[in-house]
Amino acid sequence: MSIRTFMSVLLLALSLFSTNLYADQLTDLLGGKAAETAADTSKVIATGSSVQGDKKIRERLQSIFAELDALKTVSISVNNGVVTLGGEVDSSASETKALQFAKQVEGVVEVQNDLVINRSMSKRLQNTWDKLLVMGKQTIAALPLFLLGLLVFLLFWMLGGWISRRQNLFRRISPNAFIANLLGQITHLVFIMLGLVLALSLLDATALLGTILGAAGIVGLAVGFAVRDTVENYIASILLSVRNPFEVNDLVNIDNFEGNVASLNSRATVLISPDGNHIRIPNATVFKAIITNFTRNPERRFQFDVGVDTDQNLLTAQTLAMETLQAMPGVMPEPKPAALIEALGDSNVQLRIFGWVDQRQNNFGKVRSEAIRGVKQAFDQAGIVMPEPIYNLRINQQSETPPSATPTSASVEDRSEAQDVSADRTIEDKVLSEQTSGDSENLLTPNAPKE
After folding, report:
1. ∠ CA 442-444-449 to the nearest 5 degrees?
2. Which neighbouring-strand residues pair with 165?
3. Residue 70 — very low, low, confident or very high, per pLDDT cuts 50/70/90?
4. What is the H or E stretch that residue 225 is in?
5. What whole-number distance in Å separates Cα of residue 300 and Cα of residue 294?
6. Continuous H helices in 291-402
7. What's the pLDDT score for residue 320?
8. Distance between alpha carbon 205 and the CA centroid of its chain, in Å?
């Protein structure tokens, strides 16, 4: 851009500011008063017109404008039903009001707007100050009523809070602590809403309640999308606490995570794994997952496979396996143990052996381990061959290797400890210890219905 062009644009801008063209005047020039507006074809224009009719229109408008401080200085002229308004008004709202009144008078054909908005700084400040004074007087006059409404609202807030803390009352409705607490919170919210409605009724501002509820709905929708996972976990917590799929210390498998249940809170379910680790699973996942509860039915079946040589008598091997399990401590006599032929292999026949354990008295893993040891020992003593692939590996070494230590036979005490099948309470004791020392909520209650 050249210097001459830049100076021309600058002079044009200065000339526009020097002529005091306000926004309203620019609007009029672009598409307002300067443009001819189309006539209103919906209004029927009478054929007759008189000076008396124009006089009545002018007198009627003068009587209306005289009652309004903002329109007292407006001049009115009427000719053949065309009203021309002139003079100064203090704001655009007053201009619009004057035009509206003129159009509503009977017999008016058209309204010509020659009004000028007074943009004097002193006048605007005076009008603003007058409005502030009026608002201040109205506020002082309404202050006792406002204080009364505030007192009613606070009383209902405190009363709702006091009732919501009476958990014994809600425990009679629902024995579940989580549901009882939720009912208390809902009751508190109901009292708050009642107090708000009564306070707004005293202030004659009940229309404001709809605006508040609408804004609260929009905010709640936005927050709901933002914390969707949290809300989902909270709802899942409610459903899980209503009908408990497990109890404290139940051995469960949830979403391929196995452990004893330690607690169920409003966000997650906590398990303690067999190796002592804490596993935290979101309740939304727990609610949708496939849950295997190993403790709900205390009788649990174990199984293991044994291969015997194809030359052996299978019926003898099956009978010996079942008799061995029936004589073992920890294996339940009813349901009886079973030994079934599972598969016929190339070099052996695979037997699948079943037995039942009462988990309240014996450890499942230990009984299964003893059952495998006992069946192997019985087969060895009976001469039943259990063939397996054998690979011989010989390594020639130049240096001499020390002779291997000769294994010693286990003592009686070691044998009894290895053959012990009593229940192992290690993890259960950890859960109970955590229940005693922990201060977190637990939604698992013995009184809740069980699935």
Report:
1. 155
2. none
3. confident
4. helix 207-226
5. 7
6. 314-326, 364-382
7. 92
8. 32
Q: Are 118 and 70 in contact (CB under 8 A)?
A: no
Angstrom distance (rounded) from CA 262 to CA 430 = 9
* pTM of the predicted model as reported, rounded to 2 decimal places: 0.50
Reported as a single tens digit per residue, the pLDDT across 325-343 is 998 888 888 888 989 988 8
Each residue's pLDDT tens digit, 9-37: 454 544 444 444 444 444 444 444 443 44
| Tokens matching residue 320 | 């010996």
Pairing of strands 299-309, 257-264: unpaired
Angle, helices 92-104/51-66, rounded to nearest 10 degrees: 140
Residue 124 pLDDT = 72
CA distance 165 to 185: 9
Q: Which residues contact 316 (CB under 8 A, 6 or more apart)?
A: 382, 384
Q: What is the pLDDT of residues 205-260, one digit of tens each?
A: 767 777 777 777 777 777 666 667 777 877 888 888 777 788 888 889 998 898 98
Q: What is the radius of gyration, based on Cα positions, of the chain?
A: 47
Domain 40-119 has CATH 1.10.760.10: no
Q: Give the pLDDT of residue 354.
A: 92
Which of 91, 97, 84 minimizes the C-alpha distance to 116? Answer: 91
Task: Give, as one character, the DSSP assignment of residue 401.
Answer: P
- β-pairing verdict for 348-358 and 338-344: antiparallel
Question: Scanning the structure block, which residue is given the tokens 């809300």?
Answer: 231
- Within 8 A by CB and 6+ apart from 87, the residues are 73, 74, 75, 115, 116
Task: For residue 115, list its beta bridge partners.
Answer: 87
With beta carbons less than 8 A apart as the criterion, state whether 184 and 226 touch: no
Contacts of 319-324 with CB under 8 Å at 24 or more apart are: 320/378, 320/379, 320/382, 320/384, 321/351, 321/353, 321/375, 321/378, 321/379, 322/353, 323/378, 324/371, 324/374, 324/375, 324/378
Query: Which strands make up the sheet holding 338-344, listed edge to edge?
Result: 299-309, 348-358, 338-344
The domain 299-387 having CATH identifier 3.30.70.100: the answer here is yes
Q: How many residues does the chain have?
A: 451
Cβ count near 310 (within 10 Å): 14
Q: Which residue has the tokens 């997650």?
A: 268
**DSSP β-bridge partners for residue 338:** 354
In angstroms, the CA 294 to CA 101 distance is 84
Question: Considering all CA atoms of the chain, what is the largest pairwise distance in Å, rounded to the nearest integer?
Answer: 142
What is the CATH number that goes with domain 241-295+425-451? Answer: 2.30.30.60
Q: How far apart are CA 248 and CA 429, in angstroms?
A: 11
Q: Pick the closest to residue 47 from 110, 109, 111 (CA basis).
A: 109
Which pLDDT belongs to residue 407? 52
- Average pLDDT for 59-72: 86
Q: Is 89 helix (H, G, I), strand (E, B) or coil?
A: strand
